[in-house]
Specification:
Elements: H1 7-35, H2 37-64, H3 72-94, H4 98-104, H5 107-122
Length: 124
Amino acid sequence: MPESDSHFYERAIRRISWLTLGLGLLGSIAAVSLRGFRSGLAFLIGAAVSYVSFFGWRRLTGAIGPGGQTRFAWLFVARNFILLGAAWVIIKFLGPNAVAGAIGLFVATAAIILEIIYELIYAS
C-alpha cells in the first residue's frame, strides 16, 4: 500500500463496518437456531454495542491527531458509562444468555482480524 493512498483507510473502515454487521447478523441467527431467541437477542445486543464501540474508538483516534476535538474526550467517557449500563442490562435481564452477549462484544474484533487477513492476501 502506498503511503499516499488516502482512500485506503476509508475503504478498510467500510469493509470492517460491513463485516461487523454481517458477523453480528450471522452470529445472531446462529445463536437463535442453537440456543433460542433470548441468546440470539443477547448476541445481537452485544454485537450492536461492539459496532458502536468501534466507531467510538475510531473517533477517539481521530480526535487525538492534529486538529482533533478536545470535547470528544468527555463524550467518550459518557459513552463508556452507557456501554457499561448496556452490559449490566445484558447480564441482569438475559441471565444465562449473558455469555452470548459477551461473545457478541467481540464481533468488531473479529471483523478487524478478517480485514487484516484480507489485506495480507490482497495487498497490492
